[in-house]
Amino acid sequence: ELSDVSSAVDVWFMAQILALTRSLALQHPLRLGLTLLCPRSMSSLDTRARAVFSAAVEGVQPDIVVRRALERHGDKLHVAGQRFELSNNLYLVGFGKAVLGMAAEAERIVGDHLIKGVVSVPHGIQNTLRNHGKEQMLLDSTSKIAAMEGAKHNLPDTDAQKSAECIRDLASSLTAKDLLLVLISGGGSALLPAPVPPVSLQEKQDLTKKLAAAGATIQELNTVRRALSLLKGGGLAQCASPAKVVALILSDVIGDPLDLIASGPTVRSVSSPEEVSTILDRYKLYDSIPSSVKEVLGKPKPCLESTIQEKTSGDNVLNVVIGSNTIALECASRKAIELGLRPVILSPGVCGDVRSVARLYGLLSKFASSPGTHPPPEIAAEVLKLGPEVGIESWDLCRTLNTLEKERKEGWGATCLLAGGEPTVQLTGKGKGGRNQELALRVGLELHSGEGKRGAVFLSGGTDGQDGPTESAGAVTDGGLMEEAASQGLDIDSFLTKNDSFTFFSQLSGGQRLLMPGLTGTNVMDVHVLLLPQSPQDFE
Fold it and tell me: What is the pTM of this model?
C-alpha cells in the first residue's frame, strides 16, 4: 500500500514538471490571462453555482443543439462539415425523451423539403411540456411529423412497439435519392422496441430482466438486445439503405459511445448468435429461453444481409453527437468566467459510488485550502488512488491538482471546478431521493469541520431537471450543512441510511438548498459544481 501511495505521488509530481512545459496545451490559454473580478451583483457563491448549472442545461437544450448542428443554405443542408442536397427528399424519425424539441427545431430549419416524419416520445410528454411552458419544444399544428407516445414508466410497451413499426416502415420505403434525418436522445432504447419475429416484446423483456438479475454487464445486455432487435445495433440505418442517413445524437451515456446510446440504431454493431449463446450459457439461461429466441439465434436478421451492411458502413451514414455532458460543461465554463470565476473542468465521466465521489470532492477542497507552500503529498496521493473508483483518469486528476496549486500561489480568485457523469447510490432504505441530492448531502459532510475549503460551495444537479422520483434536480451544499441540520433537529446519518435525501433537504431551512429548475426537456446526465473561494495563504 505504501508503494502505491509513493508511486501515486511520483505521478503527481511528474505531472507538475510536465505542466510547466505543456501549460498552454493543458489549460485554456485565453482564460489564464483574464483578471477575474467578482461582480457585486452576484457575490453569493450559492447563487453563482446555480447560475453555472443553469448555463450548462441551457447549452444542451434540444432546439439549441439542433440549431448549432444543422444549417440550411438554399437547397443544401450542412451537417458536421458535410453537405447534402435537398429536393423534397427529406424524411425524419426520432426516439428519446428530448427528440420532440429536436424535431420541432429541425422542421423549422429544413422547411418544405421535409416530406414526412415520425417520432417516438415518452407517454404524456406533450402535455407535460405544455404545462411547463415549453411550447417551443412542441410540434406545430401543421407539422408533417407524427408524434407517437409510449414507453410508460420508461419501459417498452405495445404503444412504443407500434411507434417503432411506423419508424421501420418509413425507413424501409426510402430510395437512393432520399435523406433520412434520425434524432436520438436518452431513453430512446425503450421507445424503439422492435423484436425480431417470432420473439414477442414480453419474451425479450423477460430475458433481459433475467440476465440483469443474474449479474450481466451492460455490454452483455446490449449484445443480447441487439441480436433480438430489428432496429438496434445499426438495424435502422440498414433498413433505410440505400438512402443517406444523418443521425443527430444527444448523449446521456458516459464517453458518448455511439453503439450504447439508445442501443445504436444507426451504428453497425452486429451481435453474432455464438456471442449471444455464450452469454446465455455463462449465466445458465440458455436451456430456459423460449423456442422463439432459439429460432432467431439460428438465422440472420431480415434486415441484416451482408450486402446491406457493406452499403451502410461507408459514406451513407453520418453519426454526430450534438449534445453531451462535455458540451454542457463547456457552456458552464463560459458562464463561470462571466461570473468572475476561474473554471477548471475535471471530467465529464464521473461514476462509481456517491460515497467515493463525495470523498474525492472533499479531498480536492482540502487540497486547495491546505496552508503552506505545498499541499501535503498524502492528499494528492489519496486523490489519485480514488481515480479508478470514480472513473477519472490519473492525467485529469494531475492536471486539476496542478491548477488548484497554481490558484493558491498566484491568487487567481475563486475557482469553479466542473465535472459531470452519473454516480450510483447503494440503496439501504426506502426513502425519497436521488443520486444528486445524496451526493450533495455527503459532500456537505466532507466539507464540514475544516475537511474542505472554508466557504466552499458544492452543487449536484441532473440536467433533465429530475433527480430520482422527486421534483428536484439536486441540491446545493457547503461546510455549514451539519450545524444547520443539527440546529433544526435533523439527523443527517438517519436520512442517509434511509436514502431519504429529498426529505432531508425539503425539511432543512424550508427547502432553500434544493435545486428546482423544473422539467428542462434535455438530458446529458449530471453536472457537479464545486466553488472554491480564494483565501490568503502564507508562503513564508
Answer: 0.86
